[in-house]
């Protein structure tokens, strides 16, 4: 029988105007944690109902005895999370969901991330790097200030390309050109994305044209995170039939060619 | 008094359950079994079933509000055939009764589905979810109309001797009239109640926060409304009441029992903590030991005696 875990906060720091980084002691979690999986974190103090629901977060870095999360303060849940200090305990449910997969024989992968979605891909970059796989990344954000995970990715990536709105380099056409150049030049085997529907659609088209594997980590609104509430459904196509599936249970990572992007 | 002196078993209209805690339909499913031993709870109540497969409403389907959440799932369903062939057999591995929640679009469909569901020997009781829109009545919920409530329950009563639980909608002016109509129709138990019709708007996008514009509010914010409705229904009906709406812990469950409920259903709380029903059972037991009650019945509606 699984249970929720109370993990000790090791650090919780504001990195920029909107982004925070939190590390927790995960030595009590026996289950293997894979990139792309998520934890449903209870941001409210025990017994308080404000905020009421848990918030799903994918891991930014998975270490032997600690977990790191990168999060953007957007609403009351993440605002509450930013108030925790080292030594506090936070209740987590997880790891949940289907992780990213790396096929055997993969030598080079390409990541396409936007905003906080970059954090989800960082854990994948970390795992791929440790397996001797070369990692390339195209990271998109509103501004340079929002490209915080880019620094962490440098440790795992052979090449990282930044595109931002403030530099007017994040348009789909430009990103498509960058992606195609990287795929051609480095002979990329598989590509992964998270953080933007617009870029996910772009990657979906690219992997079809280039005949490479691709996966996407979806970010649907979740209430329960355990496959009960049907809040986080998305449409996928399998054998020419559209299915409505729960992204907490059958995802959040899907083969990108299956997903119907609204 | 020792623990063995406390008896948590209750009868809800002919169905005896080992304790008064069960899930609310829609907030329960296989995904929770990793966190909760289903054999501990009073009954299992899988998500409401519709006759045909239906996709449910468009995203976003849920949003959080102060002390609650609004959902507009729209009863995503695989249809009654899959329910009978897969869902019902699946829950036979657990040694607790299965209550089937039925959602239909017409009185005839309620009859037809009830006949199919009641025909399964593995279904212990039927829950008629009359909070869903009645397509024969401009989408107004069956449970908003006394006559239609009576008609649905009466028709289903002719079909089966199995216990019929009627899940009332709280979105009515006078819940007592609807409760009495269900009782006249032959209900064995009344579930009081369901989510409250609600709406939330994102002031930045200026759009509704759920795709279906309106949805059902659940969570601790609605509990006082539901406690009031349990109390009011208890004033006019002796049918066993199953309280439902905003129960987050054992204290909330006890409050509903004191208002007149015999059992309770737990929904949103399981989203916060999927093993919370186990904690509630233990909490009720501890309360009974503390105040030296031997049965739940000593508590049911007790607040009426205090007024």
UniProtKB/TrEMBL annotation, chain A:
What keywords tag this UniProt record?
2Fe-2S, Electron transport, FAD, Flavoprotein, Iron, Iron-sulfur, Metal-binding, Transport
Q: How is the cofactor bound?
A: Binds 1 FAD per subunit. Binds 1 [2Fe-2S] cluster per subunit.
* Binding positions (FAD): 55-58, 77-78
Entry similarity comment: Belongs to the PyrK family.
Please indicate which superkingdom the organism of origin belongs to: Bacteria
The yes or no answer to whether the keyword tRNA processing is present is no
Q: Name one GO biological process term.
A: pyrimidine nucleotide biosynthetic process
Q: Which residues form the FAD-binding FR-type domain?
A: 2-102
Q: Which residues bind [2Fe-2S] cluster?
A: 224, 229, 232, 248
Signal peptide extent: none
Q: Which Gene3D superfamilies match?
A: Dihydroorotate dehydrogenase, electron transfer subunit (2.10.240.10), Nucleotide-binding domain of ferredoxin-NADP reductase (FNR) module (3.40.50.80), Translation factors (2.40.30.10)
Is Secreted among this UniProt entry's keywords?
no
Q: Per UniProt, what is one GO molecular function of this protein?
A: oxidoreductase activity
This chain's protein is named Dihydrdoorotate oxidase
Which cofactors does this gene product need? Answer: [2Fe-2S] cluster; FAD
TrEMBL record, chain B:
Quaternary structure, from the entry: Homodimer.
Record-stated family: Belongs to the dihydroorotate dehydrogenase family. Type 1 subfamily.
Q: Does the keyword Manganese apply?
A: no
* Catalytic residues (UniProt): 132 (nucleophile)
Sorted alphabetically, the Gene Ontology BP terms of this entry are:
'de novo' pyrimidine nucleobase biosynthetic process; 'de novo' UMP biosynthetic process
Which PROSITE patterns does the protein's record reference? DHODEHASE_1, DHODEHASE_2
Cofactor(s) it depends on: FMN
Q: What residues does FMN bind to?
A: 25, 47-48, 129, 167, 219, 245-246, 267-268
The keyword Ubl conjugation is annotated on this UniProt entry: no
Chief location category: cytoplasm
CDD domains registered for this protein in UniProt: DHOD_1B_like (cd04740)
What is the reaction catalyzed? (S)-dihydroorotate + NAD(+) = orotate + NADH + H(+); (S)-dihydroorotate + A = orotate + AH2; (S)-dihydroorotate + fumarate = orotate + succinate
Pathway it acts in?
A: Pyrimidine metabolism; UMP biosynthesis via de novo pathway; orotate from (S)-dihydroorotate (NAD(+) route): step 1/1
Function statement: Catalyzes the conversion of dihydroorotate to orotate with NAD(+) as electron acceptor.
Q: Which residues form the Dihydroorotate dehydrogenase catalytic domain?
A: 8-288
Enzyme class, UniProt record, top EC level: oxidoreductase
In Swiss-Prot or TrEMBL terms, this protein is called Dihydroorotate dehydrogenase
Q: Which SUPFAM superfamilies match?
A: FMN-linked oxidoreductases
What InterPro entries does the database record attribute to this sequence?
Aldolase_TIM, DHO_dehydrogenase, DHOD_1B, Dihydroorotate_DH_1, Dihydroorotate_DH_1_2, Dihydroorotate_DH_cat, Dihydroorotate_DH_CS, Dihydroorotate_DH_I
